[in-house]
Specification:
The protein contains ten helices and twelve strands. It is α/β, with parallel strands linked by helices and about 300 residues long. α2 packs parallel to α4. Bound molecules: nicotinamide-adenine-dinucleotide. The site of nicotinamide-adenine-dinucleotide (NAD) has 32 residues, from α1, β2, α4, β5 and β7.
Length: about 300
């Protein structure tokens, strides 16, 4: 049984990755400090360690005990707005935390690391759409800077120590287990609507994002573990631009909500439009998302209604 350690395995994306790993017969270890992750997300067939990636001793002892072959690194500070409010915390978690994970990998002979990065925040305001992996990098917020900076360390540990790697840069991920407190648009709108409260739209709502359903993503990552593509960094998204106003309209349709949204000022540091080019992942890794946006949004709404309203 191949042993895989998932950092952030109690979180939104990490917990779905853990579920697919277990379904596919992997032996799974989780490291998570439960800062945004939840106990109820933890698969009972995985071994869970409450540990903080910013504490090298803490995570090293888990690595030394478990000796994983593969690491999927999904622990991070993920909130763009929080990264603007507290860039030091963001950098400590996303840069130093990743270096600690890499050090623990190096000292314990991990063969491969899969790093979960951002496609939405690493490129900055797009010079062209869809944005491919060769697009210039001008992140507008500390979150994009910290996530991208850590990519260099992942690459350096490959060059220096031979730890193989894949990096996936996601569009906006949505789906069940997304915590509305993280304030991502699909879940916060679902939360407000499920409670019959009026959602707030920043700016005119015409801003667009590229959404990727969490189960499509998690299954794909698990299926990529054994692959050795020529490139190592891939955008992952649906390649479809969906506006905030469209999301609100679809949710009104799904839920029967009757009111209009409230508009307030746009947030500085947030890009206007983004859509990722995923041709590289399609050709090299067979990326083909299955879930259409309305179906995924319905699942998201049902989850939030059941768990948070
Ligand atoms: P999440 O907040 O649900 O998951 C992050 C997990 O990491 C949580 O369980 C949290 O408790 C844990 N964590 C945070 N700091 C930690 C620390 N210091 N030590 C140990 N554990 C810690 O967020 P998510 O959306 O599941 O994000 C997972 C990964 O995907 C992150 O790397 C994020 O940057 C990336 N990503 C997410 C999105 C998205 O739309 N959700 C988009 C692009 C990239």
């Amino acid at each position: 049984m191949v042993k895989v350690l998932v950092t952030g395995g109690a979180g939104f994306i990490g917990s779905h990755i853990v579920d697919f790993l277990i379904l596919n017969g992997y032996d799974v270890v989780i490291i998570d400090n439960l800062s945004t992750g939840k106990e109820k997300n933890i698969n009972s067939r995985a071994r869970f360690y409450l540990a903080d990636i910013t504490n090298l001793d803490e995570i090293e002892s888990v690595f030394a005990k478990e000796k994983p072959e593969i690491v999927i690194h999904a622990a991070a500070q993920v909130m763009l707005r929080k990264s603007i409010e507290d860039p030091v915390y963001d950098a400590r978690t996303n840069i130093f935390g990743t270096i600690n994970v890499l050090e623990a990998c190096r000292k314990n002979n991990v063969k491969k690391i899969i790093y979960t990065s951002t496609g939405g925040a690493r490129y900055g305001e797009p010079e062209y759409i869809p944005v491919d992996e060769k697009h210039s990098l001008k992140p507008l917020a500390p979150y994009g800077i910290s996530k991208h900076t850590a990519e260099h360390y992942v690459h350096a540990y490959f060059k220096i120590y031979g730890i193989d790697y894949l990096i996936f840069c996601f569009g906006n991920v949505y789906g069940p287990r997304d915590d509305p407190n993280c304030k991502r648009v699909t879940s916060i709108f679902s939360y407000m609507i499920a409670r019959n409260e009026v959602p707030v739209i920043f700016g005119d709502g015409g801003q667009t994002r590229d959404f990727i359903y969490v189960l499509d993503l998690a299954e794909f990552i698990v299926n990529s573990i054994d692959k050795n593509p020529i490139q190592r960094l891939f955008n992952l998204a649906n390649g479809e631009q969906i506006s905030v106003n469209e999301i609100f309209s679809l949710l009104k349709e799904i839920s029967g909500f009757e009111y209009d949204a409230k508009h307030i000022d746009a947030i500085p540091g947030e890009i206007r439009d983004i859509c990722l080019d995923t041709k590289l992942a399609q050709t090299e890794l067979g990326w083909k998302p299955k879930t259409d946006f309305k179906t995924g949004l319905r699942e998201t709404f049902e989850f939030i209604k059941e768990n948070y309203s």
